[in-house]
Amino acid sequence: MKFLVDAQLPRRLAFELAAMGHDVAHTLDLERGNRTPDGEIRALAVQEGRVVVTKDNDFVTLFLLRGAPPKLLLISTGNISNDSLSRLMAANITAVVNAFAENDFVELGVSTITIHA
User: Fold this and answer.
1) Mean pLDDT of 6-19
2) Rounded to an integer, what distance in angstroms lies between the CA atom of residue 84 and that of residue 21?
3) Chain-wide mean pLDDT for the chain?
4) Quick check: helix, strand or coil at residue 22?
5) Helices 82-100 & 11-19 angle (0-180, nearest 10)
6) What are 84-104's pLDDT values in tens digits?
7) Given a cut of 90, is residue 33 above it in pLDDT?
8) The model's pTM
9) What 3-state DSSP class applies to 78?
10) How confident is the model at residue 59 (pLDDT cuts 50, 70, 90)?
11) What angle do CA 14, 15, 20 make, to 5 degrees?
12) pLDDT confidence of 9, banded at 50, 70, 90?
C-alpha cells in the first residue's frame, strides 16, 4: 500500500511502514518538509494514490467535504509515545490494509479500528 505520513507523526513511522513492505513518504521527504500545506499533501495523495496518515482533523473535514484525499488513515490515539505508536501500527497494519480494500476512511485508536462508511 502507498502511504503519505503527515507532519504530526514521526518519520520513524514512515520507516517502519516501509520496512513492512509499503511504499511510504513522510512530509519531511517533500520539498517544503513539515511546512507542506494540506492542499499540497492532498494533491500529492490524489496524484500518487497514497493514503494520508495523519492526526490532523482538518484532513477529516477535507475528506468529508471534498472527498480528498481519496483515502485517509486517522490516528486518534491522543498523545502516546513513539514506541507505543510503533507497536500499535505493527499490531494492526494487516487489518488497516484490509480495511482499505473496500473503504476510504479508517481510524486507528489505541484499542479500536473504526471504519467510516
Assistant:
1) 96
2) 20
3) 95
4) coil
5) 50
6) 999 999 999 999 999 999 999
7) no
8) 0.95
9) coil
10) very high
11) 95
12) very high
d(CA 4, CA 79): 20
Note whether 24 and 18 are within 8 A (CB). Answer: yes
Which amino acid makes up residue 23? D
Return d(Cα 113, Cα 117) in angstroms, integer: 13
Q: By C-alpha distance, which of 71, 86, 78 is closest to 16?
A: 86
CATH of 2-116, one of 2.40.37, 3.40.50, 3.30.450, 3.30.1370: 3.40.50
Which residues, in sequence order, are bridge partners of residue 71?
51
Distance (Å, whole) CA 4 – CA 99? 17
Residue whose C-alpha cell is 513539515: 34
Please name the helix (run of DSSP H) or strand (run of DSSP E) that holds residue 94, with its range, or none. Answer: helix 82-100
Res 96: pLDDT: 97
